[in-house]
Write a structure and sequence with these properties.
- This protein has 68 residues and is of the alpha+beta class.
- It has a three-stranded antiparallel sheet.
- It is built from two helices and three strands.
- The protein has one domain.
- 15% of the residues lie in helices and 37% in strands.
Length: 68
């Protein structure tokens, strides 16, 4: 896939990671409470990001798995 055709969103970035917040209901039961994207760029702290942030981020880089 050509990096120029990729949308600049967390799921196409090398540094984007998917996360899940789980709510513990009982000692044996839990449920997904929320889902989020996080930026794992090595030059910054790990933090939650929105799709809009990735559209203008200077650190955005096409994920290797999509460009090979």
């Amino acid at each position: 896939m050509n990096p120029r055709t990729l949308r600049r969103v967390p799921w196409t970035c090398e540094w984007g990671r998917f996360g899940v917040a789980v709510e513990q209901l009982t000692p044996t039961e839990s449920r997904v409470d929320d889902v989020f994207w996080a930026c794992h760029h090595p030059s910054a702290e790990i933090r939650s990001v929105s799709k809009r942030e990735c559209e203008t981020c200077p650190e955005w880089m096409a994920a290797t798995r999509l460009t090979e």
